[in-house]
Amino acid sequence: MEPEKHVAPYAHLAPKMAQLSSDVLYGDVWERTDLSKRDRSLITVAALVATCRPEQTGFHMQRALQNGVKETELVELITHLAFYAG
Q1: Which one, of 10, 24, 23, lies nearest residue 56 by Cα?
Q2: What is the value of pTM for the model shown?
Q3: Less Cβ crowding at N or C end of the chain, within 10 Å?
């Protein structure tokens, strides 16, 4: 199965960076099999919440839902992190 193509919102400003993100991050890292996409999504959302990256969090929360994470799990993730990274 062909990995999905991701077009970065900054592609018009930094096309090479967008290409590398698409090819390496989404074409390779996200396709590795030692972690499920669901687990990768939980880790990614946790990292974005913990480092206060709201501009990326929305996209990755939607991706997490598509990858099988439940909305209640995302709420718990945020609640849990509030005490560790808040």
Answers
A1: 10
A2: 0.83
A3: N
∠ CA 24-7-64, nearest 5°, is 80
* pLDDT tens, position by position, 34-83: 999 999 999 999 999 999 999 999 999 999 999 999 999 999 999 999 99
Residue 2 lies in a domain: no
* Domain membership flag for residue 6: no
At residue 81, φ and ψ (nearest 5 deg) are: -70, -25
CA 2 from chain center: how many Å? Answer: 19
The 8-class DSSP code of residue 4 comes to: P
In the chain, the amino acid numbered 66 is: Q
Amino acid at 17: M
Which structural domain range is residue 19 located in?
15-82
